[in-house]
Amino acid sequence: MINKNELLISVGMDSERLFTNSMYGGALVSIDKKTYEAEYLAFPGEGLPEDFIYSKSFIRENNILYFLDKHGKLIKYNLDTHGYDSFLVSDACCQEVDIFYTDMIKVNDEIFVFQKYSDALKVINIRTKSTEDVHLLNEGERPEAGEVIPSPVFCGSLIEGKKVSLITRDGSFLVTYDCLTRGRLATKISEDSVDVVHMDYRNGLFYMLARNGNIYTVSNKGTRELFFQNETKEACEYRVMIVTDKSIWLFPGVGEAIAIIDIVKKSMKMYQGTPDDIEYFLIARKQSKYLLYTEDKVEDVVYFANPTCVYMMRLNRKTNELTWSRPIFKNHSKKLRHSMKQNEIIKEGEFVLTDFLGIV
Description:
Layout: E1 12-13, E2 17-21, E3 28-32, E4 37-44, E5 47-48, E6 59-61, E7 64-68, E8 73-78, E9 84-88, E10 101-107, E11 110-115, E12 120-125, E13 130-135, E14 154-160, E15 163-168, E16 173-178, E17 184-188, E18 196-202, E19 205-210, E20 215-219, E21 224-228, E22 238-243, E23 247-252, E24 259-262, E25 268-270, E26 293-296, E27 301-304, E28 312-316, E29 322-325, E30 328-329, H1 333-341, H2 353-357
Parallel strand pairs: 4-5, 4-30
Antiparallel strand pairs: 1-2, 2-3, 3-4, 6-7, 7-8, 8-9, 10-11, 11-12, 12-13, 14-15, 15-16, 16-17, 18-19, 19-20, 20-21, 22-23, 23-24, 24-25, 26-27, 27-28, 28-29
């Protein structure tokens, strides 16, 4: 039986720990990157705002953890005192926090939030608690509405130092923004539009995954080439693409099958290393499984959270190895105590005897 308290939806990191939110209940959780021991840090109403649900990603600086919640608030969480401060950034841009922005980066006193469904870059000053919109596209550079409504403006982003690169959803423009100098460079890629769902970068090339399953490469100068053609002629179910030194990994939106494309041979095969005991939470089985991840650029690995099963994944870009690990919650006493304070209905299987003994 799956303990839904262990279903984790988001992921961020520092040098030693991963930070995530539980899918059900919104708890803030810390996970040791080596041992995968998990610890509850805070809950809505106890260290977090009462209406907190979950965040997409986290920025760690010293003892402070910055993250956006689904209601449009920037939360500044103190890892030492376990207290927080927050203020409203926008009540419109965060309606779907898992998809509304592609990435965020902190530079000095400002946090830059790159949105997916708007070309308006949100600049948040954490000292003055003010916000500013900076448009990344000029007239004629914005993609037309696609088949999916609302249509994204950008398909993803890449952070390199203080610079962020984004590709428009139609694959027409590569935009690079310098968060330090506030400079912007837009490079025309092609007149022919491509419906792009995700992008990645490896060894000097941008990779674009199209909705039809084709994969294109784009050089830093904007030259686009078809790298892999989907021969099935069927709609592509893959929504996330991670490129390693050897392969292109394709992760489905709502499906379960992971595909691998050999970069040299340009041949595709299905991944066979899924844990034998993997079990999906049935209510959320059709929910996206692999959309939220974070990257450790020092170790050159990508960490995935999965809100539908109790496993997390670690993909090494150098060795091409995908590792599945289950966070180890020594006990759920803190979660149980919080549930009891909130007068929540406790269902069979959510807690065990040691959890109850931990609050006695």
